[in-house]
Amino acid sequence: MRRKSAWILLAVLAVLLAVWMVSCSQRAKKSPGGTEVQQEESQLQEGREVDGAAQMAPRDETGQDRLAGGSSGELTYAVQRIEREYQADDGTPIFLAKLSWPAFDGEGEGIEAINRYFESWAQDKLTEYADAQNSTRQAALEVYRESRNLSWTGPWGESYEVEAVRTHGDYVSVLMASFLEEGSAHGLPYREDHLFRMSDGKSVGICEMTGKDQEEWNRLLRERFSQAVMEGDRSLYYDNALETLRTYDMRKAGYYFTDTGIVFYLEPYEIAPYSSGYVEISVSYEEAGA
Questions:
Q1: What is this structure's pTM?
Q2: Closest CA to 75 of 206, 172, 193
Q3: Do 100 and 42 share a domain, yes or no?
Q4: Are residues 111 and 223 in the same domain?
Q5: Whose C-alpha in 44, 90, 140, 257 is 20 to 30 A from the C-alpha of 193?
Q6: Over its length of 290 residues, how does the chain's per-residue pLDDT go in tens digits?
Q7: Is 6 exposed, middle or buried (0-12, 13-18, 19+ CB in 10 A)?
Q8: Distance between CA atoms of residues 36 and 146, nearest Å
Q9: Are 155 and 236 in the same domain?
């Protein structure tokens, strides 16, 4: 989350800098003395943030909020969705949040605990968006205030989709794919990975699941990612990718289950540029000790 926040901050600063440059250019062209522009700006009301009411995604013909999901191993699940639009004081849409999360079928303490976890996850996201001091929604509002008469390119948005759900033994892996759109910027991809023990619903880490300690995983994953760089197209990676991997803390690596093993990934900008996407390697369940 810290890396994602850093990306958002850099993007906001870049947009605000562009807006300031355009504003200065227009002042120079329209009113050397500044009178015309200052008069126009004085008519803009800063106002207060007005968050639009929650807008649920369209229901299906049965009237259920739960939309078709899928099945994985011993579990079946549906996908719950919610959309919420936030507006500026003048009614202009500035931010659209789209959230999706799995709702697992079945009874038992573990399944119920996992479902409660994701219900809280969704509520925490909405609370984060409503934060007037530190949220992507607030960042969008600040950019809109600075650029609505100059270069506002439309509402920002953030979406979360259920990308992959797999089970292995007593564990279930959930991969959430996120995308943050910031007007004219190319957008920021992001992933959240979640791993649960189904018997009790506890959120666990890869070390607890496999019995390997973090040093073992560091050695194995550094070797595998380095091998991927050396055997792949070197133009897809940064020049210092191998040097970075020598000391890289693999606790930062994300992971999710497939039918044959565990995929580990590094986010864009870690060892490769945005255009290269996620860098992924795979470890079989047998080798992982799972």
A1: 0.74
A2: 172
A3: yes
A4: no
A5: 140
A6: 445 554 444 444 444 444 434 344 433 333 333 322 222 222 222 223 333 333 333 333 333 334 446 666 668 999 999 999 999 988 889 899 999 999 999 889 999 999 999 999 999 999 888 877 778 888 888 888 887 777 777 889 999 999 999 999 999 999 999 998 887 667 788 999 999 999 999 999 999 999 999 999 999 999 999 999 999 999 999 999 999 999 999 999 999 999 899 999 999 999 999 889 999 999 999 999 87
A7: exposed
A8: 17
A9: no
- Residue 25: give its domain's CATH number: 3.30.565.40
Same domain, 217 and 90: no
Between CA 47 and CA 88 the distance in angstroms is: 8
Do residues 48 and 121 share a domain? yes
Which is nearest to 222 in space by CA: 271, 259, 179? 271
Please give the Cα distance from 119 to 111 (Å, whole number): 12
Both 7 and 150 in a single domain?
Answer: yes
Give the whole-angstrom CA distance, residue 223 versus residue 235: 19
Q: Please, what sign has the CA dihedral across residues 135, 137, 142, 143?
A: positive
**Count: domains in the chain:** 2
